[in-house]
Automatic annotation (TrEMBL):
<feature type="region of interest" description="Disordered">
    <location>
        <begin position="187"/>
        <end position="208"/>
    </location>
</feature>
<dbReference type="InterPro" id="IPR050627">
    <property type="entry name" value="Nitroreductase/BluB"/>
</dbReference>
<dbReference type="InterPro" id="IPR000415">
    <property type="entry name" value="Nitroreductase-like"/>
</dbReference>
<protein>
    <recommendedName>
        <fullName>Nitroreductase</fullName>
    </recommendedName>
</protein>
Amino acid sequence: MGNGLPPLIERAVEAATRAPSAYNTQPWRFLIDGDRIDVVLDRARVLGVADPDAREARLSCGAAVFNLCVSLRANGRRAPVRLLPDRLQPDLLAAITIEGEHEPSAADHALGKAVPRRHTNRRPFFERAVPAHARRELDKAAAASGARLALIEASARYDAIAVLTRRAEHIQATDERFQAETEYWTGRPAGHTDGVPAHAAGPPPDPDGALRLRPFRGGETLPARPYEQQPLLAALLTTAPGPRAEIQAGMALQHVLLTATTLGLAASFLSQPLEVPATCRAVADLFRAEGTVHALLRIGYGHPAAPIPRRPVAEVVTVRDNTRR
Ligand SMILES: Cc1cc2nc3c(=O)[nH]c(=O)nc-3n(C[C@H](O)[C@H](O)[C@H](O)COP(=O)(O)O)c2cc1C
């Protein structure tokens, strides 16, 4: 394996790096100390313009924590997690301890297999409804990881989200600092291990579509194709706000996305309205009675896209040297 890590830990960290993150920034580091893996927020990889409070970065790290645990459980180990274990180190987001044996369930195996297959799909989906049994599975996944998934069908709330998404996108399109950040992280040629490659972009967004997906560099040269008319939308919620809830929501987000993968469903994000303060407050108002919204997803069926690269394990891991203690 080359970096001296036990194979179990190397596999778990590799799985963690497969988590989604805004613009594939991969804002995480993993500190290994014997059987303990600490997940630490990497401030140097937080998007200064789109994510000044590191909210999206904590969601991404929560997703990485979930993948770590999925890998450990699928490989027959218990892996309890403590969130924010040290109040003096707020960027130490989670500590995972590898404990005794665990008999992997069919669900553990299915989630483990979904980790390398899950990816964000920005292309048009088919006009095919998500059936009730799949919706129930997605609901259950969010609930099992301490969050709630609100599925949003055609309704006044759906229309309000579509309007806020367009408003946010317009604000971001005229913000030079935001555009420079997007330019830096997207449309990357082959060979990069972070950022979004040009091939992961979808075709130009449909000007008449109900929902406006964020255009990514690389997509503008693709022939236009119609997007589905009214994709299923999902809002991921927790009862409380704050950093702990953001990490928890990231874990639930990944549980939902991996479950979607096992069901043959594709997903992409609609983060624009949550990144602009004015539209974010308006989205919060739409869900005021239900809790705090952490992510908005578009879910449906589509041709799979290709997974995109990650930094190698050796670049994201620090092994604590206990010999000097
Ligand atoms: C908090 C968060 C916000 C995201 N927002 C968007 C978004 O607005 N539009 C989009 O196309 N992808 C979005 N993504 C998806 C990332 O771009 C994607 O996870 C990353 O490029 C890695 O690719 P993968 O998910 O295919 O592995 C978001 C991901 C996270 C975790």
